Amino acid sequence: MAVFKLDNVEDLYAIGNVLGSGHFGQVREVRERATGVLWAGKFLKLKKGAGSRLGLERKSVEKEVEILQSLQHQNIMALKDVFESRAELVLIIELIKGGELFDFIAEKENLTETEAIEFMKQILEGVSYMHQKYVAHFDLKPENIMLSDKHAPNPDIKIIDFGMAHRFIQGEEYKSLGGTPQYIAPEIINYEPLSTAADMWSIGVITYILLSGLSPFQGETDEETLRNIVAMNYEFEPHYFSQTSNMAKDFIQKLLVKDQRYERITAEECLVHPWIKPLNRTQIAKRNRSSINMKNFKKFNARRKWKMSFNMVSACNRFCRLQLLCKARGPEQQELRDCESDQEDTGTKPASLLRRRLSSSS
């Protein structure tokens, strides 16, 4: 059961500056009064009633809170407290200042595979812990892999955003049609029963991008991307993988496997794969001589950030047009008012819509 406190959040935390905002509320820096420790406070508006279109339903947050309260690991964003009032929920979460891992890497002039592996190892340790708790994230992508503090000598990886996460119960069959097209596993697209193995596919895609600066299944459209995933249409193009070790390619190949249950390796198996944990000096030497394609990686990250900015501007423009439309229609069109204002633009497109497009165009 998720644990919610009924205390006044301001009695325990001093509320500071706004760090970000969205359709459902805002994130502010908060200071714990008893210890002086800084956290982030996520202030979420709740729906006032069953017919209200503004705000979030409590149940939609409760599942994420319950999962986060059960996960306490160095590489997973910490949730300290949750406060509930009639109007809002306040989540007190770890203040993560280091930004996205991919942005941090893109600032470097060069990066060896050995250095990249140190980050991958932390990601795998966090994912392995989750899976041992029977939790799958279902939205692993660069935007959800952060650094605690990029100025630290050895910054910690932090996996964030558990809005799509699910805890498996023994004997349960779970299906879902959500995720970001270029990172989702084929079993999601095919609407098959899911397992924690779907996260491992995403790890394979992230590793491929990290080493080459190329997305393995990316097409001109989302539909083409999904077709490429289902058809397993990817390769290690020499132009992008000339500096990549064979061990790294083997690691990726063991993750980008269509058969999720019997062939795709687990997080625990990844941690003992020779690319992550070399067996001898020869393997160590090969890793040290190999490096990631920084020139192409920087281009990929720049395109990724541009797309995120474009999506945000587009969402804001749609929201402004909607507000003008609602005002022009007047109170008699109340059902149109705020019809998109409670739809958060996260860059995660529902795979269900993509599958329908895919079916209609085939």
TrEMBL record:
GO CC annotation terms, alphabetical? cytoplasm; nucleus
Q: Which family, according to the similarity comment?
A: Belongs to the protein kinase superfamily.
Domain of life of the native organism = Eukaryota
For whether the record's keyword set contains Membrane, the answer is no
Q: Which protein, by its recorded name, is this? A: Death-associated protein kinase 2-like
Task: Recite the UniProt keywords alphabetically.
Answer: ATP-binding, Kinase, Nucleotide-binding, Serine/threonine-protein kinase, Transferase
Q: Which part of the chain is the Protein kinase domain? A: 13-276
Q: Which organism is it from?
A: Sinocyclocheilus grahami
Annotated ATP binding sites: 42
Ranges for region Disordered:
334-362
User: One Pfam family name from the record?
Assistant: Pkinase
Q: Does the keyword Transferase apply?
A: yes
InterPro entries associated with the record: Kinase-like_dom_sf (IPR011009), Prot_kinase_dom (IPR000719), Protein_kinase_ATP_BS (IPR017441), Ser/Thr_kinase_AS (IPR008271)
Q: Name one GO molecular function term.
A: ATP binding
Its GO biological process annotations read: intracellular signal transduction; positive regulation of apoptotic process
